[in-house]
Amino acid sequence: MSPSPEDKPDSAQASKQRAARAALGFLHDGMILGVGTGSTVNALIELLATEGWAARLRGAVSSSDASTARLRAIGVPVLDLNEVTDLALYIDGADEATRARMLIKGGGAALTREKIVAAVAARFVCIVDHTKLVDTLGHFPLPVEVIPMARSYVARQLTQLGGQPRWRADVTTDNGNAILDVHGLSIGDPIAMEASINQITGVVTVGLFAARPADLLLVGRTGGVERI
Ligand code: 5RP
Fold it and tell me: How far is ligand 1, taken at its centre, from the CA of residue 40, in Å?
């Protein structure tokens, strides 16, 4: 989907800030917050500090070492997910999103932990700028986390599914694995594609969030925030 005419091309960062600020409306005193990864989430973490939320949260569960460091730097205790049974809210960004709230994630290589925290959370609020909204997923190369020794095998299987996988050679995930970015996919049935890729031996996680989509999408735009 094309940006609305009022969305200026240089406004993506401001739109991320707007979406992040809108997400503050879902916080409650004393809650444990699930926190994702990326520049939109970094804007959220900054707002947690400047808007006084760092002291009001009981703690956070984090989807990456990078977000953990940022949360600790503003004084938010970061908890082990295994110690948390009730996680009311997870807030994270996305690389692409549809109006069905299905997502491609993993541009920051944190997709596996992101998917785990999303699975545990009662509510997943996704914060994006307007450039992320699409009609069909797949223009953004689909990240797949793989066990390192399976990288070439998985790449061959992904080619059979119609994609062109490229190894993100300079990246090792927080879990010690490799990332393949699959180019050239037009993902007409995201739930089926997610299941197919997850079944390839050696795949840890595919960055399609379709079986468990976001519950609410906050799309930052030049003129405000659209709720989907
Ligand atoms: C990290 C992610 C991020 O949510 C995604 O890459 C979006 O990042 P940004 O907010 O910087 O645009 O999935 O693995």
Answer: 7
CA distance 221 to 145: 31
Residue 48: CA count within 13 A, CB half-sphere: 32
* Closest ligand 1 atom to 16 CA: 10
User: Is the torsion defined by CA of 17, 171, 109, 105 positive or negative?
Assistant: positive
pTM (2 d.p.): 0.95
Ligand 1: nearest atom to the Cα of 105: 13
For a substitution probing ligand 1, which of 18, 105, 168 has the most ligand atoms within 8 Å of its CB?
A: 105
Q: Which of 46, 96, 114, 194 is catalytic?
A: 114
Q: Say if residues 76 and 57 touch (Cβ distance below 8 Å).
A: yes
pLDDT tens, per residue, the chain with 228 residues:
444 545 555 489 999 999 999 999 999 999 999 999 999 999 999 999 999 999 999 999 999 999 999 999 999 999 999 999 999 999 999 999 999 999 999 999 999 999 999 999 999 999 999 999 999 999 999 999 999 999 999 999 999 999 999 999 999 999 999 999 999 988 999 999 999 999 999 999 999 999 999 999 999 999 899 999
Q: Indicate the top mutation candidate among 13, 37, 128, 177 to test ligand 1's pocket, ranked by most ligand atoms within 8 A of CB.
A: 37
